[in-house]
Design brief:
The protein contains seven helices and 18 strands. With 316 residues, it is an alpha/beta fold. A six-stranded antiparallel β-sheet has the order 4-3-6-1-2-5. A five-stranded parallel β-sheet has the order 9-8-7-10-11, sandwiched between helices. Strands 13-12-18-14-16 form a five-stranded mixed β-sheet. β10, α5 and β11 form a beta-alpha-beta unit. The longest helix has 14 residues.
Length: 316
């Protein structure tokens, strides 16, 4: 974690505020890959993950945008009500589980509400590289849409706004958007879960899982629905077998036995605690591994996921 200073705060939309962050020691920040996020610790000591939406090559400052959530547990609410310009926060280095696919020749980005943030950094990179893309931004109305002036100016030739689309009409609207793109175009989406689920459903009619990419801001309800039965884990380096009881998470058992496993969100979102699986079948409850990665059963998000098989062998 490093100390960063809030250089500027801007109200970007209703209940969405952006924060321009610079290093407190005046040193340049690292460049990052589009779609990356950072861990940001607010004044209440709560750490949350926020997508970076500044130009990825700009080392002067990072920009994040935070939506004030009605059910905030101290993260977004504190950043909206308890900070001001000039204050210091703690921030981790950029990490990414949401990438532009280098093999894609065309890209279609679907954002809803605060979900525009990681896609904005992608738009910067795609514009810079000259790759064909289209960003479709869905919101209830203009006051709920963030960065509209920037999108309508800097990215004017690539952005289409969709306001007030009713849930019953979303399938048709998304289908029309995809019909404008080539069949080989990769799809990227971020926003509320129902919106992303519909994007994935519509996109899957014309392309495979490898061409559909998404980023979650909230935990899968399955991750907090209560653990399934107990199972065993074997540590490949030592052959030690550990019991994971039904009421205990895998990461807690591993940490209790001296395994150096970092955690941040503990909700299956950030991907900090991913461990390689050498044998066995995980029960995936996370929202950070892709469908392809889950199907391969080669990784497990240790904070929320469990096991289908009686034992997992981990690369630890």
């Amino acid at each position: 974690m490093m100390k960063v200073k809030i250089e500027r705060i801007v109200d970007e939309a209703l209940d969405i505020r952006s924060f321009r962050l610079v290093r407190s020691d005046g040193q340049p920040l690292d460049t990052y890959e589009p779609g990356a996020h950072v861990d940001l610790t607010g004044p209440t000591g709560v750490t949350r993950q926020y997508s970076l939406c500044s130009p990825p090559q700009d080392r002067r400052a990072y920009l994040v945008a935070v939506k004030k959530e009605a059910q905030s547990r101290g993260g977004s609410l504190a950043l909206h009500e308890n900070v001001q310009e000039g204050m210091e926060l703690e921030m981790g280095a950029p990490r990414s589980l949401f990438h532009l696919d280098p093999s894609a020749t065309e890209h279609v980005l679907f954002a809803a509400g605060i979900g525009v943030t990681p896609l904005l950094s992608m738009a910067y990179r795609l514009t810079e590289s000259g790759q064909p893309y289209r960003l479709h931004y869905f919101a209830r109305s203009p006051e709920y849409a963030a960065f509209t002036e920037l999108l309508a100016s800097t990215f004017a030739n690539h952005v289409q706004f969709h306001y007030g689309v009713e849930p019953a009409d979303l399938d048709a609207a998304l289908s029309e958007c995809l019909n404008q793109a080539g069949s080989a175009a990769h799809v990227y989406t971020c926003g509320p879960a129902p919106f992303m689920n519909k994007v994935v459903e519509v996109a899957a009619r014309s392309r495979g899982d490898d061409a559909i990419h998404l980023e979650h801001f909230a935990a899968d309800p399955a991750a907090t629905a209560g653990p399934s039965g107990g199972f065993e884990v074997e540590l490949s380096s030592s052959g030690v077998v550990l019991q994971v009881p039904a009421n205990t998470s895998l990461v807690d058992v591993l940490q209790a036995h001296g395994c150096d496993i970092d955690t941040e969100c503990r909700e299956g979102i950030c991907g900090t605690c991913i461990v390689e699986v050498l044998d066995g079948v995980p029960e995936h409850r996370d929202n950070c591994l892709s469908n392809k990665e889950k199907a391969s059963n080669k990784q497990i998000c240790a904070c929320v996921s469990r096991a289908v098989s009686a034992r997992l062998v981990l690369d630890l």
